[in-house]
């Protein structure tokens, strides 16, 4: 099921910056936000409880990767937070992913990170000793995530069609690297506009800088939301 709200990546250095950012939105505007590991490690579960208390939906992007027993225990804690989506690394293996899913149940959607977008084919061959293309490795990890019972994967919008063809149409594709036409690309390499992401079948888009660094974040958010739903 496609989520109509773009997920806003709250990539801010401090809790106060998050609070200032949220001031741009009316209180009754319920957002879907992404919290990453840096922020979570710095502030702790308090940030989740704060955002939840305001009625926002939360994607907790902690990218868990450890032995199945440890990930299961960690996930049993995260499951009590009232979050909406959380990540593990597919490289942790089918057993690890499946244990995480079992303990999380329907408390939140569980999606897997496949190959990080920062990993080049050369790195992958050299460091992970995976002798395929990055795309083949991404699709393989997506299949493993599906086999483990996960809800979907985080991927580049360019990979959505391949992943859905290899798994299922309802296997969720969460796509960062989204830029409205004409906005700064920054360090993202292969970007897509919100409309293109919709057309190729993304279920969620994750947008950071085009919203959080905009002169008027509310306007930027609504423009992106409009494009994503058009
Ligand atoms: O500012 P920008 O829109 O590029 O932010 C995208 C967000 O999605 C950031 O929080 C970034 O860490 C995250 N992300 C990504 N590429 C991935 C996975 C996560 O850009 N493959």
UniProtKB/TrEMBL annotation:
Q: Where along the chain is the active site annotated?
A: 63
Reactions catalysed: orotidine 5'-phosphate + H(+) = UMP + CO2
Query: Which top class of enzyme applies to this chain?
Result: lyase
Keyword terms: Decarboxylase, Lyase, Pyrimidine biosynthesis
State if Cell inner membrane is listed as a keyword.
no
Is Ribonucleoprotein given among the entry's keywords? Answer: no
Identify the HAMAP family for this entry: OMPdecase_type1_B (MF_01200_B)
Protein family: Belongs to the OMP decarboxylase family. Type 1 subfamily.
Q: How does it assemble?
A: Homodimer.
Q: What does this protein do?
A: Catalyzes the decarboxylation of orotidine 5'-monophosphate (OMP) to uridine 5'-monophosphate (UMP).
What this protein is called in its record is Orotidine 5'-phosphate decarboxylase
- Which species does the entry assign this protein to? Streptococcus panodentis
Organism classification: Bacteria, Bacillati, Bacillota, Bacilli, Lactobacillales
Name of the coding gene: pyrF
